[in-house]
């Protein structure tokens, strides 16, 4: 009998030590996942949850440069990542064609457009001063304009909008810092520029240093009838398949994080400023808050908007993109 008891105890001990899915008998082990967001507006949707774990997942957060997004996804290093919609879609398409070993699914959309038509020149009208979106866009016919993200959503979307208005506009790609410096110095500038950098310029050089002519989101919706989904949270497909409960918990926490951003900007902006590697100050975040269009829609709720945008910019997606 003694030998039997010892054998049974040994078997139980081995089971408890070797079981992959348990930290102790009957206790589920938390998955450990890396979640990244590029510096700037994408971090703000996650700011309230930054540094927190969920009940069933341990999360390691990191602020990265925008140029690192593609690398983090291609390497599979990111389990979750806030990314421009077109980059996530291109990684998914590359996976489908055998070009990359990791697939990503769109979990939600949290950024609905932070880009604007801006100028410090007197010759251009605001959207409110024009009878229609087409009239507004047509005033740039024959002109040259700088834009952030020439080959990304900003540049491709504006090219589409000008095309709809039959306006021939030359777009030159430019870094946001270059546009910002031009406005601060007072050089004649007309550009597709973004928040909160616009607010940053005004903080440095005065309210009149840059004039917002129109929101790209508003012009896009006028023409297409759809909202303008710029960025959302993507999840690596194997994480979604192997740990759906953890993914669901992260998605729900993103939703509540966005809700907190919109209900208590003072608290969230202060927390955001304290995030390691994050460049925005609380004062700028608060001042730019109502121009950053941070709102949550889950994968299903954003699908129509995402499909429309990707089609308009020449990168249509399939249903497998959506979690």
Question: What's this entry about, in short?
Answer:
The protein is α/β, with parallel strands linked by helices and 323 residues long. It has 14 helices and 13 strands.
Q: Enumerate the spans where pLDDT stays under 50 for 5 or more consecutive residues.
A: 1-26
Count of runs of 4 or more consecutive helical residues:
14
Structural class comes to alpha/beta
Ends apart, CA distance between termini: 54 Å
Instruction: Say how many strands there are.
Output: 13
Identify the strand order in the major beta sheet.
4-3-5-12-6-13
Judging from the principal axes of the Cα atoms, what is the shape? Answer: globular
SSE topology string: HEEEHEHEHEEHEHEHEHEHEHHHHEH
**What is the CA-based Rg, rounded?**
23 Å
Q: Which strand-content bin applies to the residues? A: 15-25%
Mean pLDDT: 91
**Biggest sheet descriptor:** 6 strands, mixed
Residue share in helix: 40-55%
